Amino acid sequence: MIYRQAGFLTADYRTERRWVPHAVDRWALTAFLAFAALAVPVIGNDYLFGAILLPFLALSLAAIGLNILTGYAGQLSLGTTAFMAVGAYAAYNLNLRIPGLPLLASIVLAGIIAALFGILFGLPSLRLKGFYLAVSTLAAQFFVEWALNKIGWFSNNNSSGVITAPPMAILGIAVDSPARKYLLSLGIVAVLTLVAIRLTRSQTGRNWIAIRDREVAAASLGVPVFRVKLVAFAISSFYCGIAGVLWAFTYLGTVEPDGFNLSRSFEVLFIIILGGLGSIRGCFLGAAVMVVFPLLLSRFANAFFATALDPGIQEDIENILFGSLIVLFLVKQPLGLVRLWDQFKRRLETWPLSE
Amino acid sequence: MKPHIVKSLAVAWLLAATMLTGAGAARADEQYFPLQSYRVGPYAADGSGFFGGFIDYMNLINIRDGGVNGVKLTWNECETEYEVERGVECYERQKTQGKPGPAAWNPLSVGIAYAMIDKITQDKVPLITIDHGRTDSTDGAVFTYVYPLVLNPYSETSAIINYIASRAGGFDKLKGTKLVVVYHGSPYGRETIPIYNLLARRFGFSVTQIEVPHPGNEQEAQWLEVRRIKPAWVVLRGWGVMTPVAIKTAKKTGFPVDHIIGNIWSNSEEDVTPAGTAGKGYLAITTHPAGTDFPVLQAVIKTVYGAGKGNVADQKRIGSVIYNLGIVNGILNVEAVRIAQEKYGHKALTGEQVNWGFDHLVLDDKRIAALGAAGLVEPIHVSCSDHEGGGSIKIQQWDGSKWVIKTDWIAADRKALWPIIEKSANEYAKENHITPRDCSKASS
Question: What's the CATH code, domain A48-350?
């Protein structure tokens, strides 16, 4: 009743291909973005920005990157954080070595460098499929970590290999407080998300899906398989690269090569599996669960068991609980959170008229 | 979706919202110490020992003295598992707690410390990295709020080389000597790579530095490489589970353990006991001896554990090197508060006021003896420009059941290190648009 999709008819392709087809959805999205951009910076505190929203936004963007490659184009990758690392270190070096380069330009350039790197490591995808491809993307993961550790130039010869984010400013406005960093992240993520939605519905996106669903059939229909795969790698790496910049610059403010290790690649993979493969919304839902849920568990345990349990044992129990809840959820809902969301929407359509 | 699911989702949401915004409690006239501890993961033995000692000492001050001049100490723990991301979350969670805010941060992790430097500088709250940390933060003119107290990584390196030279019979004898550094693959482990290379060039010895990836459960390849090089000495810059595995693997591959020198984080009972008999003869440096003979440790055992408030579950660990470092860290933090109180009054202080205390943290032999820590704590002299304040080590050897101190204090060549530290600090200042404060004008 409240939310209805009935009466939505399209008369031409332009309307059908709109970014957000339904008027209600459009309103809801606009209202949500306005809330996130105008209200949240006022009502939020440093904890909300620094510990929840900034990692959430960076991980969501990385998940979109991986989802483009894995969820849409069907190419399994375990090198997500390698591309994040390339982006972060590239942005650091661009800011350090090219004085006067605007921040946003350096972020875009860092994304492009990550994209080139992605194309390089996407080359094996012509011959390798499935798990074999995943193994070859592991090479990217190990190579990047090794190179960043061994070649001091990348970290400006910092003895620990740690890079520190430079002071940031856009058009003379310093991006120094957590709220401003949040706004910067939000802006970048919002724009890139809309581009991603658009992309997945364009011919490129359809080509990706065609290759994912059946490569031979796609090739026989005239989809240039190799080029489409490389484009997927490039765009995916571009997104991951920028996610890496956000991770290093807005969230942590500093990063070491080991901060971009294999377990974070897996974390991003879990996000898209949990959220829903081949869905942009799923990336946000998955990232939200991955970021917020462990914090809630730890808060809950601290509030109720702080004095009763040894802190070490309490932490172990939290980890076990988090793992089992994810397993339980995926058993109950293998299609991910986005499926749950769709069911919820369908229910809203009939509520409260029928059960 | 059924209605009861919607309802339970709404309840969960409310619960979540209240829990994420809820703040911790600390009453007035309590000095709050946020503890970003770790009791889980590959470094749990170190974390629980260090924070156990720290907490026990704060308990001692509360129970025996009723606090620092009547100001009770309070703290809570936030688990980091030694991960930077979790450390940052803990920082954001804890920084708004306590009144008037945190006194000082002690994350015991180089990675987390690096991530916090910007933030604590804005908050004006001191960050203590005892015996570790970012070396150039020794320059207090640039790093106003960061303290690599007692021994920074470069001093550690220099003192170890000085010891090796004394064993060889002088610095001229170092020429042609082969040295291998086996280090932990983390910011902490890599911190000393350039200084070893520099000292190798200066004294004419050759150095090979081999990384052990975190956490270091498997080191066969690294020690076979050591055997191939046949060095005179191996310096082990281990951490957590890496150290006992290194000692065992060294033994297995036939490298004599009495020619391995463990650094300041490979020097505790927790590091050698798991290696069993392989650890007998193993050398390590320390800034503070093991043992429970010191009056302050006796007081902890009697007062804190007597009252059933001890933090370490296995009481055999009291007096281990890492536990005693927790005690030393407790002493330095508490004394900094005490010194600051003399200037700002006997009340709960802000982080910036406590920072003044650290900036003027001077403990001579007399004061250390009065604290019951003679022989446990080296005299320390922190100043505006020198945030290390110490820089000496002793060499100890594991005899199979306990540590035996082998040497007197061996000082680092701090004069030679200073230009390198200053240069690096000034580069940091330039990169981050910091104007170093003028230490000649600092208030005394």
Answer: 1.10.3470
